[in-house]
Amino acid sequence: MPAVQDVREPHANMADVAARAGVSSATVSRALRGLPGVSPATRDRIRQIAEELSYVVSPEASRLSRRQTGRVAVVVPKIDVWFYSAMLASIEAHLREADLDVLIYQVDGREQRSRFFRELPSRRKVDAVVLIALPVLEDEEERLDLLGVQVVVAGGELRDYPHARVDDQAVAVLAVQHLIELGHRRIAMIRTSDTTGTIWSSYTERTRGYLDALRAADLDVREEYLVTEPFGLRAGTDGVAALLALDEPPTAVFAYSDEIAISALRGLQQRGVRVPEELSVVAVDDHPMAALFDLTTVAQHVPDQGRLAATQVLALVHGTGAAEDSLVVDPHLVIRGTTAPPPDRR
């Protein structure tokens, strides 16, 4: 009697679902386990395809993915920069209070960042990963899916991961409007970038806010007034040097950060330019040094952003409540001695 051939279709696997949906297997895994980082439309499409193919997540794998290690990874571009260290200190303090240990990964520059995403050293070692204002490339975003843990962004936003941040566009509008209200019409911006092919969301949003404030006041947007310098101690000094060399220099400068502004103040002092009598300077952060330099700035409340990011982590890891997708801190203007009306308005 001839053998009966088994013509039953083989069980579908995750790769089958991914191929049908046109996404990676990691994205399928995140979608079916309810992890963030997948858009609602993509999640729904994956679930529908999985149902059609009769694919379900292995209960054993699901239980394994939910194990708790009591650790959280914090990934930071530069520990020795005030914004990142202040954010890290706030996050670590709040997580430690909740009996969670913190593993710190510094990824300074593209090479270290690429190695982190290639090797994923925190995978299966932690319950969640916090990215502190970390700019990433598209392929690095895809690698995040392979972590298999919750992801929270602090000090910025990425895809639809839960995040805690300041409204960077509002920050810039607040700073530039202050200068406009003082009577300034020639307002420049000094910004910095060391992202090697990636873009900080704050870089984009603060630039947008600067331009929006100028346009709302019917002021010309002058390309030569938008200066970008490499990250470092000389960013502000070199930025004001470029602006003062123009045929018509600005009467006010909006600096991307307090550290750039302090560097700019040094450059102005070296050139004998009086602040604010001849040129006003406003910045962003409310760095501890800002008060020492009597710097007008927009406070972005970095410790508060860190605290809110930590609450999102706790909500996801300990189930202490629903993690809100977006927590935004309101900035406020701190007026000190580096801004005043321009000379022709006194």
TrEMBL record:
InterPro entries: HTH_LacI, LacI/GalR-like_sensor, Lambda_DNA-bd_dom_sf, Peripla_BP_I. Keywords: DNA-binding, Transcription, Transcription regulation. The keyword Transcription applies. Pfam families: LacI, Peripla_BP_3. SUPFAM superfamilies: lambda repressor-like DNA-binding domains, Periplasmic binding protein-like I. GO terms for molecular function: DNA-binding transcription factor activity; transcription cis-regulatory region binding. Residues 12-66 form the HTH lacI-type domain. PANTHER family: LACI-RELATED TRANSCRIPTIONAL REPRESSOR (PTHR30146), LACTOSE OPERON REPRESSOR (PTHR30146:SF153). This is LacI family DNA-binding transcriptional regulator. It comes from Nocardioides donggukensis.
